[in-house]
Amino acid sequence: MKVLCIGSMNLDHVYMMDHIVAPGETEAVNEIKNFLGGKGMNQSVALAKAGANIYHAGMIGPDGLVFLDACKEHGVNGDYIRQIDEFTGHAIIQIDKNAQNCILLYGGANQKLTAEYVDEVLAGFETGDILLLQNEVNMLGYIVDKAYEKGMQIALNPSPFNEKLNEVDMTKISIFLLNEIEGGQITGLVDPKEIIASMKEKFPKAKIVLTLGKDGAMFAEGNTEFYQPIFPVKAVDTTAAGDTFTGYFLAGLSEGMAIPDVLKMSAKASSIAVTRPGAVPSIPLRKEVEEALK
Ligand code: RIB
Questions:
Q1: How far apart are CA 20 and CA 103, in angstroms?
Q2: For the sheet containing 31-37, what is the strand order?
Q3: Rounded Cα–Cα distance for residues 208 and 218 (Å)
Q4: Mean pLDDT confidence for 272-277
Q5: 10 Cβ inside 6 Å of ligand 1
Q6: Helix or strand or coil: residue 279?
Q7: CA–CA separation, 240 and 25 (whole Å)
Q8: Distance between CA atoms of 216 and 245, rounded to whole angstroms?
Q9: Is the CB–ligand 1 distance for residue 246 below 6 Å?
């Protein structure tokens, strides 16, 4: 089974701060670092490091060729990535002393996907293959419709949550991977159990994975539910923690692992990622995750 991620690639400019700057405030930066990121690429790398057969598609500018090297380095098939005459997407990320972040996103080339390009990419995939999407590229509604027509299983991480998701027919989604804030935005609810109940009612055939930060993660599908607590660690940078969880979860699922084992592996991978700076470089290899689980 192949996994295709049509997703973002961002150059992440990370500013380490005492605290995240507030409106009207000027704050000195303690350290600046540059990493490869983008929710799409982070999740593709997590899938690859977990051992999945992952293809990444999306657009970069001439300043983003480094993503092609990263694909080769990490085992992501990057043959569908197209270079266009636009700036590569970038993110300005502030990280405070408690490892919390806030992110400013410039879409750039990520927002230049066309129907023709999407058709060309999807032509390489078939019924049963998994398509993974986040909300950092354009054409989401079109991509979902076309992939659904082909009989692909569609996994959606509706992040960042905004009005662009209105174009997506959510009834075509097979797997939702979302955090409690996104779950709240979709359902209008706050309590995780109520979010899960409402998601099940709205999307009765879907698998739902709800991550709850320090409170762990919940899984639901029909009458089956599982809970996975976090593995507590000292976090230095939480960027890409959710992306790592998502990538590992889909990798485990595509291998046919039992859901409680998939959840445990994903939580462990994510707990390792937060102990390291950056997005792509923070994602652990499957071997490390399995060692840590012993
Ligand atoms: O989820 C983390 C990612 O969000 C960062 O790598 C940044 O690029 C933004 O897309």
A1: 10
A2: 31-37, 10-16, 89-95, 101-106
A3: 8
A4: 96
A5: yes
A6: coil
A7: 27
A8: 11
A9: no
Residues 188, 235, 244, 44, CA torsion sign: positive
DSSP state of 132: E
Residues in the chain, total = 294
Rounded distance, CA 161 to CA 8, Å?
15
- The phi, psi pair for 202, rounded to 5°, reads -70, -40
The whole-number average pLDDT for the span 231-260 is 96
Question: Which residues on adjacent β-strands are paired with residue 220?
Answer: 208, 225
Helices marked H in 188-285 — which ranges?
192-202, 241-254, 259-273
CA–centroid distance, residue 239 to ligand 1 (Å): 7
Closest atom of ligand 1 relative to the 93 alpha carbon? 7
Can you give the pLDDT at residue 127? 97
Of 77, 73, 84, 74, nearest to 107 by C-alpha is 84
Please give the average per-residue pLDDT across 256-270, as a whole number: 98
Of the candidates 208, 206, 213, the one whose C-alpha atom is nearest the C-alpha of residue 195 is: 208
For residue 1, pLDDT beyond 90: no
Tokens of 211: 């991550």
Instruction: State both tokens at 3.
Output: 């996994």
List 93's β-bridge partners, or say none: 14, 103
